[in-house]
Amino acid sequence: MDVYLPIANLSVNGLFIVALGALTGVLSGLFGVGGGFLTTPLLIFYGIPPTVAAASASTQVTGASVSGVLAHNRRGGVDYRMGLVTVAGGAIGSGIGALLFRFFQSLGQIDTVISILYVVMLGTIGTLMAREAWTAIRASKTGERPVVAKRRHHPLVASLPMRWRFYRSGLYISPLAPLILGVAVGILTMLMGVGGGFILVPAMLYILGMSAGVVVGTSLFNILFVTMVTTMMHALTTKAVDIVLAGLLLLGSVSGAQIGSQLAQKARPEALRLVLAAIVLLVALRMLFGLGVRPDEIYTVSPL
């Protein structure tokens, strides 16, 4: 079943795109990540221009975040005050990201910028995840318990003025810290088409010092609204959102996420993290290889 992607000016196999969305959905449900950081590079490997892939993949992340927020809300796992601050920062970051996107697009370098960002981010995250998972596996084999330090917010966060109480997170910190964090995630979401959860969750834990019980739900709350804003920004400014591509991805990811969540209950968490780290590093290496190889067609997508 061939379908035409109007923005990408490309005919693709619709069933393959749905299957790709389902695969990403399985990974999302299996590993507890939004999946956007894998969807975009996989679309690029398939031949979708990076601009269109990044702009369209955020729609899939939005849809996948809705059920997660509802589930965490039922058990009180969402800090809405913290979430609203990060969403405000994400909206600001999306505007900044849109300007950067248009700037690099005008230079004809946006595809290269997206690829470089993915190589750096996936390489760093994959390495950290692999080290943590391997340490956990080794500790479980030897019977040792890993030393867990008491969670506190970063000293720089403590030095910021105008403190607020975030009761569900158990914090008394300046709202400037989550606001700045939200800005950074908004910029990355706009440029890379990711939800930002793979950055936001560890940042909430180790920089803000949030309670682990509300981190995932609050992160999903932020992702839900920030990806909605970035999708609108892309549609209005970069005009790179391909609604056909986004619809096919969303169709596959909804069913795939349910399968992944069932599989996750039967596997060891540290083994899953190690597998995910390996996948992330392989994707980073493939994108690094692509940066050094001359493409068949040297062009980028730009609005008319």
UniProtKB/TrEMBL annotation:
A GO cellular-component term linked to this record: plasma membrane
Query: Where does this protein chiefly localize?
Result: membrane
Transmembrane residues, as ranges?
Answer: 12-38, 83-104, 110-130, 171-199, 205-228, 240-259, 271-289
Membrane topology of the entry: Multi-pass membrane protein
Which organism was this protein described from?
Tsuneonella dongtanensis
- Asked whether the UniProt record includes Lyase among its keywords, one would answer no
Lineage of origin: Bacteria, Pseudomonadati, Pseudomonadota, Alphaproteobacteria, Sphingomonadales
Question: So what family is this one in?
Answer: Belongs to the 4-toluene sulfonate uptake permease (TSUP) (TC 2.A.102) family.
Keyword Cell membrane present in the record's keywords: the answer is yes
Task: From the Swiss-Prot or TrEMBL record, state where the protein is found.
Answer: Cell membrane; Membrane
- Write out the entry's keywords from A to Z: Cell membrane, Membrane, Transmembrane, Transmembrane helix
Q: Which InterPro entries match?
A: TM_pro_TauE-like, TSUP/Inactive_protease-like
Q: What name has this protein been given in UniProt?
A: Probable membrane transporter protein
